[in-house]
Amino acid sequence: MENVVVLIVGAGPAGLATAACLTQFSIPYVIVEREDCGASLWRNRAYDRLKLHLAKEFCELPYMSYPEDAPTYIPKALFVKYLDEYMERFEIQPKYLTSVELSKYDNDNNCWYIVARDMAEFTTTKIIAKFLVVASGENSANNIPVIPELDTFLGEALHSSRYKSGKSFFGKSVLVIGSGNSGMEIAYDLATHGANTSIVIRSPIHVMTKEVIRLGMTLSHHLPLNLVDNLLVMATKFIFGDLSRHGIIMPKMGPMILKSKTGRSTVIDVGTVGLIKRGIIQVQGNISNIMGKKVKFQCGDEISFDSIVFATGYKSTSNAWLKNDGSMLNENGLPIKEYPNHWKGENRLYCAGLARRGLAGIATDAKNIANDINSTMGSISSEISFCM
Ligand SMILES: Cc1cc2nc3c(=O)[nH]c(=O)nc-3n(C[C@H](O)[C@H](O)[C@H](O)COP(=O)(O)OP(=O)(O)OC[C@H]3O[C@@H](n4cnc5c(N)ncnc54)[C@H](O)[C@@H]3O)c2cc1C
Ligand SMILES: *[C@@H]1O[C@H](CO)[C@@H](O)[C@H](O)[C@H]1NC(C)=O
Ligand SMILES: *[C@@H]1O[C@H](CO)[C@@H](O)[C@H](O)[C@H]1NC(C)=O
Ligand SMILES: *[C@@H]1O[C@H](CO)[C@@H](O)[C@H](O)[C@H]1NC(C)=O
Questions:
Q1: How far is the CA of 326 from the centre of ligand 1 (A)?
Q2: H or E segment and range at residue 289
Q3: Is the pTM of this model over 0.90?
Q4: 23 lines ligand 4 (CB under 6 A)
Q5: pLDDT of residue 48
Q6: Domains in the chain and their CATH numbers?
Q7: With a 6 A CB cut-off, is 376 part of the ligand 4 pocket?
Q8: Ligand 2 centroid – CA 210 distance (Å)
Q9: pLDDT in tens, 32-74
Q10: Cα of 24 to ligand 4 centre, how many Å?
Q11: What are phi and psi of 336, to 5 degrees?
Q12: Which helix (H) or strand (E) holds 208?
């Protein structure tokens, strides 16, 4: 049985940022990570050409800037290097290969009881913590939609987290399912590597150049969101023209308001729109079912594919291990309370990085959590004894 003040679950950007902020207050913590490295999502589950989608000024973790000469959009390898340096600077040493399987609040002793599995030794460890920080990410499991007869598909089907590059798809027919940032970029990567590429776009999306998005993020600090949205939509229509005849429909709600209301991000165009307009990438609608190598679409078309890439996102899995949490998270493992009040539950429970607000949201969560833990420790240590 190990006794800790703060237990942080997950050594991605959110866990690391929280650790760094706690260190500023000299608050001791333990950080556990199920994989054998920090930032495993970026190291092991991201495609080669990935860059941070947002300009670097919106992607910093607390207390450490990117180097002056870093490019505006940080490539994956540089981001991983930044996170490695972050760990070094703040002396963060996660316990790797340690997967949390159960956390329960004990009302009699006012403690969190945590059971973690040692993935190397196949043993379990019990941890008692005063404070518990859920930093296991919005992306901890692959999300694959239910498609009738998917198991009968004769080609290769993979999730975007296993996709590295289009090199191995040269000359093949590939269907990308999902039109978020990953799907649109993977489609571009496939097409530019010589794959005959189609993408399923099921519902309306905003897709814009990264410059337009950067402008929007900057303007949103000074102007009302609906005004910013009108400007962005106008700029986009001017740059791309009418995309509806290519199968890309704009949502009725503007991009900034949509993001703040639903968490849905605008897709950043990396060149995909141009390839769609030139007919190099084909846009498809909903799938009805799969038969062998053929995919049948709701419009009646039947097309053969060698491979399917599911760029259908991820899900949080914290609800699988976090019990009696005092209703901080819903059944999808995401916060119940709305931003900006989402990060704190009952009984000294917190979450970092679950509000669908990217790295900027992670930085704010980490600071809020560390401040709150600091003041809670100041106010309770003398009065109530808990978790002894
Ligand atoms: C392809 C992609 C591109 C993105 N680009 C951007 C961008 O440009 N800008 C931006 O701001 N945001 C971006 N994001 C969103 C977000 O910033 C990243 O997903 C970021 O890595 C989230 O950090 P995190 O620490 O919350 O989660 P993660 O990076 O997923 O880290 C969580 C960690 O917890 C570990 N873990 C999970 N469950 C357990 C458990 N039970 N026990 C122990 N450990 C556990 C996982 O192994 C993982 O290492 C992107 C996301 C994706 C998927
Ligand atoms: C590419 O795929 C489309 C269907 O999406 C098909 O109509 C076309 O013939 C294919 N082109 C080649 C060169 O295989
Ligand atoms: C695809 O199906 C979804 C519901 O599953 C529906 O909302 C959407 O309108 C459909 N899209 C197209 C292009 O038919
Ligand atoms: C940390 O907590 C202590 C004790 O409550 C308090 O005096 C101090 O001001 C706090 N620090 C900050 C930066 O809030």
A1: 24
A2: strand 287-291
A3: yes
A4: no
A5: 96
A6: 2-140+314-387 (3.50.50.60), 143-310 (3.50.50.60)
A7: no
A8: 30
A9: 999 999 999 999 999 999 999 888 999 999 999 999 999 999 9
A10: 11
A11: -85, -45
A12: strand 207-208
* Residue 168 in tokens: 């191995």
Query: Does residue 62 have its Cβ closer than 6 Å to ligand 1?
Result: no
CB of 81 closer than 8 Å to CB of 356: no
Q: How far is the CA of 48 from the centre of ligand 2 (A)?
A: 26
Query: For 70, phi and psi rounded to 5 degrees?
Result: -70, 145
Token readout for 345 is 């539950």
Q: Encode 261-296: b = buried (16+ Cβ within 10 Å), e = exposed.
A: eeebbbbbbbbbbebbeeeebbbbeebbebeeeebb
Please work out whether the CB of residue 318 comes within 6 Å of at least one atom of ligand 2.
no
**For residue 174, which amino acid is it?**
V
- Comparing CA positions, the residue from 256, 236, 279, 249 lying closest to residue 179 is 249
What are 76's two structure tokens? 């994956």
Structure tokens at 22: 């706690």
Give yes or no for residue 283 CB within 6 A of ligand 2: no
- DSSP states of 297-334 as a string? ETTS-EEE-SEEEE---EE--HHHHB-S--SSB-TTSS
Any atom of ligand 1 within 6 Å of the Cβ of 358:
yes
Distance 196 CA to ligand 2 centre (A): 6
Tell me the per-residue pLDDT of 217-274, one tens digit each, with 9 for 90 and over: 999 999 999 999 999 999 999 999 999 999 999 999 999 999 988 888 999 999 999 9
- End-to-end CA separation in angstroms for the chain: 12
From the CA of 282, give the closest atom in ligand 2.
5
Q: How far is CA 239 from CA 208, 242, 277, in A?
A: 9, 9, 12
Q: How far apart are CA 298 and CA 149, in angstroms?
A: 15
186 Cβ inside 6 Å of ligand 1: no
